[in-house]
Design goal:
By secondary structure, the protein is mainly alpha-helical. It has one domain (2-126): NADP-dependent oxidoreductase domain (TIM Barrel, Alpha-Beta Barrel), CATH 3.20.20. Helix content is 45%, strand content 3%. The protein has helices at residues 34-54, 58-67, 82-90, 98-107, 120-126, and strands at 2-3, 75-76. A two-stranded parallel sheet has the order 1-2. Helix 1 packs across helix 2 (58-67) and helix 1 (34-54) runs antiparallel to helix 4 (98-107). The longest helix is centred in the middle third of the chain and has 21 residues, at 34-54.
Length: 128
Amino acid sequence: MAYSPVGRGFLTGKMDPGGLSNDDFRRTLPQFTGENYDRNAVLVAALTEVAQQIGCTPAQAALAWLLARGDEVQPIPGTKRVSYLEENVAAASLTLSEPQLAALEAAVPPAEVTGTRYTAESMRATRL
């Protein structure tokens, strides 16, 4: 299961850390703080550019990329609005070509993502 497949909203291309409420959980996540946010925002901009070339939203591109990985990968996006749900569902109808998949992978190389998913304390809590 691909948990948080649009990066807690980051891969929508619409996230502004200054616009998050003070009690928003994402303010505590290392990927969304300081220089990590700035570096990761460059990757989101690259994803957004590729998504525009494909003719979809960045979130749809991320979800379609995951769906292209095979039946054993299932994204489980959360949503707060019906419009986001509709956007997410529409990603299932996208069929990405090999060049499009390659462009998405080049736009967001895993080694370039900075900051951990959770704080060290939260990571300790996730270990069973």
